[in-house]
Amino acid sequence: MPELKYWQAIRSALRDEMARDERVLVLGEDVAQPGGPFGATKGLLDEFGPSRVRDTPISEAAIMGAALGAAMTGLRPVAEIMFLDFMTLAADQLVNQAAKVSWMSGGRFHVPLVVRTICGNRRGTGPQHAQSLEAWLAHVPGLKVVWPSSPGDAYGLLKTAIRDDDPVVVVESLALWGSRGPVDEGADVPLGTAAVRQPGGDLTVAAWGATVPVALDAARHLADEGIGVEVVDVRSISPLDEATILASVAKTGRLVVVHDAVSPAGVGAEIAALAAGQGFDTLRAPVVRVTAPFAPVPFAKHLETAYYPQADDVVAAARRVLER
Amino acid sequence: MPELKYWQAIRSALRDEMARDERVLVLGEDVAQPGGPFGATKGLLDEFGPSRVRDTPISEAAIMGAALGAAMTGLRPVAEIMFLDFMTLAADQLVNQAAKVSWMSGGRFHVPLVVRTICGNRRGTGPQHAQSLEAWLAHVPGLKVVWPSSPGDAYGLLKTAIRDDDPVVVVESLALWGSRGPVDEGADVPLGTAAVRQPGGDLTVAAWGATVPVALDAARHLADEGIGVEVVDVRSISPLDEATILASVAKTGRLVVVHDAVSPAGVGAEIAALAAGQGFDTLRAPVVRVTAPFAPVPFAKHLETAYYPQADDVVAAARRVLER
Amino acid sequence: MVDPYALYETMARIRSFETAASKLLAQTRIGGFLHLSIGQEAVAVGVCAALRRDDLISSTHRGHGHCIAKGGTVERMMAEMFGRESGYCKGRAGSLHIADPNAGILGANAIVGGGLPMGVGAALSAQVRGSDQVSAVFFGEGAVAEGVFHECLNLAGLWRLPVVFVCEHNSWAEMTPVTTHLAAPDVEEFAVPYRIASEVADGNDVLVVHDAASRAVARARAGEGPTLLVCRTYRWRGHFEGDPATYRDPDELAAWQERDPLRALREVLVAEDTSAAARLDALDAEAERAVQRAVEAAEAEPPAPVGTVVEDVYRAPLAIHGGAHA
Amino acid sequence: MVDPYALYETMARIRSFETAASKLLAQTRIGGFLHLSIGQEAVAVGVCAALRRDDLISSTHRGHGHCIAKGGTVERMMAEMFGRESGYCKGRAGSLHIADPNAGILGANAIVGGGLPMGVGAALSAQVRGSDQVSAVFFGEGAVAEGVFHECLNLAGLWRLPVVFVCEHNSWAEMTPVTTHLAAPDVEEFAVPYRIASEVADGNDVLVVHDAASRAVARARAGEGPTLLVCRTYRWRGHFEGDPATYRDPDELAAWQERDPLRALREVLVAEDTSAAARLDALDAEAERAVQRAVEAAEAEPPAPVGTVVEDVYRAPLAIHGGAHA
Ligand SMILES: Cc1ncc(C[n+]2csc(CCOP(=O)(O)OP(=O)(O)O)c2C)c(N)n1
Ligand SMILES: Cc1ncc(C[n+]2csc(CCOP(=O)(O)OP(=O)(O)O)c2C)c(N)n1
Ligand SMILES: [Mg+2]
Ligand SMILES: [Mg+2]
Fold first, then answer.
1. Whether the complex's predicted ipTM surpasses the cut of 0.85
2. pLDDT digits (tens, 9 = 90+) for A285-301
3. Collapsing DSSP states into helix, strand and coil, what is residue D84?
4. Which residue, D109, D107, D69, is CA-closest to D88?
5. Is the entire prediction scored with pTM above 0.95?
6. Distance separating alpha carbons of residues D95 and D78, to the nearest angstrom
7. Which tens digit of pLDDT belongs to each residue from B120-155?
8. In this complex, is the C-beta atom of C106 within 8 Å of any C-beta atom belonging to chain A?
9. Can you name the CATH fold of D4-299?
10. Do A199 and A61 sit in the same domain of this protein?
């Protein structure tokens, strides 16, 4: 298995799918000639030509909607919305249109659309380039949402997303852009599945994207003290893999959720609610959410570091939960 | 105390605040000459003139952003975004701009902006005019969000919102448009407070907007069986009145949340997570969320009726929780 | 050459359909928001007659005419208004969301301007696939104030996409006149800064609309890029059924009613051929019968089963979260 | 009459500030995304010199020049880049978000086109309050593809708001040339369908920009409505610091560097007056010293306290939900 960087894995998935299926089209700001704002589409223009790899104007709504229309009429577009924060500009096209077309048309139109977008969290990009808006996406029927935390998943989830017949938003972490890992080009990663990154019996920590390394770090600390943390990489934000999360909570009885989004009505709330609902009988301690404070994302490095959950915060939360 | 209809209460609050404070400005589609798509701004143009009461083009982003700029420079605008679904078109201006200006400017600019918007749920308006997107708003630091369930609150919350120095989104229910109730023009309703609409000792039902009557209805049914339901009208979606909700759960040990939004990452999840976190030790049964299914809002009356939570659904959920 | 009787027939079918829908709503036999295009039929028919069946349209809240003209059947449309499973949206989404891949209808739309990008996307698809399909996108002049209109013109202009932007310019957006919602009413001027072709047509003359649309479609099909086609017309009814339209001058309405697109075409045809009147009367009668049959059939069907409301959210069923019975 | 030496002085301050910022970033003494306007100073200075202190501007991701020209101090701007509490955003939001009510700076902005509506809103406010304040809104030609630009032109045209739309047309949006992102590069043409005035100015000639801006501001102040002012210019640096800008032809850059706005003004002044050179050299030196002092002062300050990051989210503190220590 080759080792690739996160962004190379993305590029590799795009390349492989474009080679396999001529219906796949890539469009977005700076994706063609420049090869992507951060390199993830480098080489595609040369290999697949200007019809299938297109630089767009700075028009997020039109990018999303044009990709939608193309998806309804025989193509399988991969649209790039440069930063997740800019999804606000494409929100009508995504939420009121793309997500509803299958349902509204009585299942007669399908929308094999992939939207790639970057979350700039933990990379000094500030309040308008680093918001974690996955909860918005999870709240929209008709969308699927994934957030890979490793090059392997970046490859596998994107590939599966492109082959899926429904709109899938793939959120990518700029913070993980240069991280390396094995990429199995044969293996698909099914949408809708979480992955247990580390088994453990005392406590479940659920995380995704850039908080997975944070959770694993905390788990290592706690392992030194003989505490077994099960780290669940949620990975599929919508649909949630409820079974895997509930099974872990059933085993450990304790749940901490870590995410970079703010807390109110975040995906952490959904996971906590799941535990408080179907998981209630197995829950032995309060569910603790370790999240960003209810404030925009600061730019200055030292403030940003303090803003996002760190391994220490997860360890502290774990201790509180384990006291019980 | 006069009895007013819900929409009349809104109009009355606008009128009173415009008369009191000449900085208050009303702008939106069809709000001036036509008096609002559903009458809530009737008469304001005549009384306050075309400078302060403005019909806009169909330009949700510009409406929101122009109101923001006006709020930053000495006015107190009340912008109308006709339906909550259209907030998607103004989302950048609301989320990336208005909500962050105070924080980004180091507290030097303030944004005394009110955004009024209607949710068309339970009124046959279909998939693009009836979404309950309050969870999106609750997830945005810098916004306050309220949803009145009665004429009294429609008046009181709007008035308080106009006097507030932060951006407040007021969601109004078309389903309650013609409902009547007493309006105390002297009393302010503070933002950030829930209201216990009916006390009870056996079970807490949290609801807002058009599900408050549903919850009260269910409570009446259960009262006949000797079951005491405490109905909490959440009313302030952000910030949540955590104390009132937790106090009720501490008393009853059981929580059902009812809302018209879909379930995943909804405000119901937040309230369930609150119970599973700070409220865990008082919780004696799983938290049940009674919500719309994970699908767009149907147009046909019989489908819409089945789609939204009804009193029977709340009663059934209550029974399940009370078995424990 | 287009057959003017075919144009008339389609206009009559739209007129009958909407007249029936208006009555059905007044009788509460159907529900929902109903936006009628009575008086504007010539635009829908003139444009769609210039299209092939495999061409695509994207429509609006005032979309019955577009859908019928593009080949949507009154049976399935009526079934949709009644909330029947045989409706275009399986009865769940209503007249604001009619869509049909077989007839090339991407969808009506309840978001002003919301359908423009998908129409541009269909044109993009045709271009990428090397097909000569054309996409026509309907919108009211009110949608010109939505930013997305401009994003679409720019994209279509840049990529020279085979799309015809059809503005149904009826001078009103809900209860607000164009003088209040556009800085200038001359929508066709927007073609200039985007370097796209434009056409202005009398939107109440179906032959004129058809001519202009045919030129636009021919350009698109030949790879010569988009056209902005502005048709001035007028809606006879209120913004939606139930709107008394007290905001507008009755004389304004009366003047436009004088220019009824059906009557206008009838006069042309009758002037050409004395037997035309009878033929047109027959078409009127047949249109009404067809709609009547559709109403009866739809009404006789059972309501769409309640369980179907959670279907088709995704192509393959997912475990549905939430719901009242969760 | 505008004092050209004052114009020069401000351009020199901007040039010094950004040159220093570039070095500080390269030395990792500061962090963040840094978009420099070196080469474009004449637009910021020409426009802002036509404004009063109580007029308002709304700025962009490339906003240091606008902020300095409008009266932002290099001390507080530099403190912001260093993440100090004395910075304009209390060190929390960085150079992309500088705002100052006292200097009439509504804010820089990291969303392309995001600042346009608030600038229009400031003009609306002035109109409603009966003030004669004017609002100037800066944006790049890339923002013309964002729908909100058009919504703003329409609204401003309709209401004849006192706003000047200033397009800094540098022919590039990130790594993409204008030919790829606009159907036509002639942004000034958008004034026509909105019936607003337009001006085209050589964006590297501060006197020309100032003249055009002064006319636009005068119209706005007189209640004659908005102007679209398009200034052709060029950025010397990459899109952001760290971008090697390999996508563009070095000759293109070289040609524009020949037209350095500071040097151009210097040549004019020296031709008029032989003592000018010394005076301008002194201004250059003073600009550099001022920036250097600001750097030293900012660097000497302690980092903004970590707790301040949750302040000012609301005017009155609320119970903050969540957070790592919840
Ligand atoms: C985004 C959005 N904003 C507002 C509305 C409410 N609305 C529905 S139709 C309409 C007027 C549309 O006018 P126009 O585009 O001219 O079409 P017409 O009704 O005249 O055919 C408005 C404002 C909406 N449906 N969507
Ligand atoms: C809504 C949005 N889309 C995309 C971006 C990424 N982005 C930042 S600057 C830029 C190019 C802007 O070009 P232009 O407006 O011409 O300004 P210039 O950089 O040339 O000064 C882009 C695409 C963004 N910040 N916001
Ligand atoms: Mg109209
Ligand atoms: Mg540019």
1. yes
2. 999 999 999 999 999 99
3. strand
4. D107
5. yes
6. 8
7. 999 999 999 999 999 999 999 999 999 999 999 999
8. yes
9. Rossmann fold (3.40.50)
10. no
